[in-house]
Design a protein that fits this description.
mainly alpha, Arc Repressor Mutant, subunit A, 8 helices
């Protein structure tokens, strides 16, 4: 497989879509603006460069992340539309698949989904015959989550579509660049209090 083809799933991309640069310059160019010279000097001594007041949107990490995040979310939603599956439903099925038998509460905590919203998500997928609750033999108050056969088939199809989108998004990156990008985005996420693998919308309860 070529370096530009990747098998990663959308768990890498639900909230990670911009690059972080740390190139140092030995001396500011005579043709750069004062703001750019300041950024160059800061980077040269190992301090993070911060966009000045005159920075264009294309030079802003925040703007770029916001813009690309919107574009990726829209594209991912349309990618899953043929399966009649919402991105948040895909995320839940994906979390249950390797941990079948775990309690609804445990899965919700892992995804950092509020309990009340988790109940609604599970109810919807159970009504579609994709997920089922079973009694927990160790705790009669808890319910264990399992995928149904239909749920497994749908999830497999969703993974195929998600992998195709991931390859499209990373078509201009080598594997090393893709990993470097993810690591940089995870550091940005840590600054915002978003753990790796967690969608930010789950933290504020908007989805």
């Amino acid at each position: 497989m070529e370096g530009k083809q990747h098998s990663s799933t959308l768990s890498d991309i639900d909230s990670r879509t911009a690059a972080n640069s740390s190139v140092a310059h030995a001396a500011p160019s005579a043709f750069t603006t004062p703001d750019a010279q300041t950024a160059d000097a800061q980077t040269a001594v190992g301090r993070p460069a911060v966009a000045g007041a005159g920075a264009t949107p294309a030079q802003s990490v925040g703007f770029t992340l916001s813009s690309l995040g919107h574009a990726v979310a829209r594209r991912f939603k349309s990618t899953l539309d043929p399966l009649h599956l919402e991105p948040r439903e895909f995320a839940l099925l994906r979390a249950v698949a390797p941990a079948e038998g775990s309690s609804q509460q445990a899965i919700g905590e892992r995804l950092q989904i509020p309990a009340s919203r988790m109940v609604a998500f599970v109810d919807a997928l159970e009504a579609r015959g994709l997920l089922e609750r079973r009694p927990n033999p160790d705790d009669r108050r808890a319910r264990a989550l399992y995928l149904t056969d239909d749920g497994r088939k749908l999830l497999a199809g969703a993974f195929t579509l998600a992998s195709e989108l991931e390859r499209h998004l990373c078509a201009q990156l080598s594997e090393a660049e893709r990993i470097q990008l993810l690591e940089a985005l995870q550091r940005v996420g840590a600054q915002l209090g978003v753990p790796p693998g967690t969608h930010a919308s789950h933290l504020d309860g908007t989805h």
